[in-house]
Amino acid sequence: MPAAYEAEVEPEYTEEEIEERWYGVPPAGERAPPSGWKYLGSITLVLLFEFALWAVYRALTADFYGQFGSYWFYVGHIIAAPTIHLGPILLYWVFIRKERLFVRSDLENGKYMSFSFGPFKMTRKLLFTAVLVGLFGGIIWRMAEFIVFDTTSVMLGGSEFGTLTLFNVFSGEEIPLFLLMTFVMFFIVGPVEEFEFRSFVHDQSQRVI
Questions:
Q1: Which of 12, 65, 106, 175 supports an S-S bond with 114, CB 3.0-4.6 Å?
Q2: CA–CA distance from 19 to each of 13, 16, 26, 207 (Å)?
Q3: Is residue 208 part of a domain?
Q4: Is there a domain that residue 137 lies in?
Q5: Which tens digit of pLDDT belongs to each residue from 145-154?
């Protein structure tokens, strides 16, 4: 390992710091980040670059996708969302930060409890709790959506409150679109946003804040 690289390796956190700041799972990254404002600025620039790419993508595909929420709109998200939002982060991580792409970490009792793909860290620690919180949040989100839909229909004079159900909110033709939207939001857009904002923006910012 080059001496220059060794000099930049971040010192190991104490157990107390790891538990207090990150609940036992410190953020990804083997090299010490730059000074606070410089690192925060670079994270912000990566985000702005992503937003600009997304704006260009939406402008170029607007005519092809048609109206917001169409079949092709959601199908396009399956590829576009992770590519545009996570691609620049990975390029920044490897070519600017000079970090490794795959890293196993958090060794306990001879087993690695976590691994990182770029700055996106995944762990088996507190896994059951994380799954329960995710499922609970998803159920609340879906219930809130139907409540809002029901209330909006009443306000617009389309129905009486409490009469809408899962089976009559959508016509037979709209059910496949609803299922596609649910899949894309839960399994594509949701994880992408978690990786982007939670794992990259929040966790990496916490290293210097």
A1: 106
A2: 10, 5, 9, 14
A3: no
A4: yes
A5: 777 766 666 6
Between CA 177 and CA 180 the distance in angstroms is 5
Rounded Cα distance between 77 and 185, Å, is 9
Rounded to 5 degrees, φ, ψ at 10 are -70, 135
pLDDT band, very low/low/confident/very high, at 173 (cuts 50, 70, 90): low
Residue 115 identity: F
**Dist CA 204 CA 28 (whole Å):** 8
On the CB side of 4, how many CA atoms lie within 13 Å of its CA?
1
172 in a structural domain: yes
Number of domains in the chain: 1
User: Which tokens in the block code for residue 98?
Assistant: 């000079």
Range(s) of the domain holding residue 41: 3-202
Instruction: Kindly state the tokens that stand for 29.
Output: 């990254």
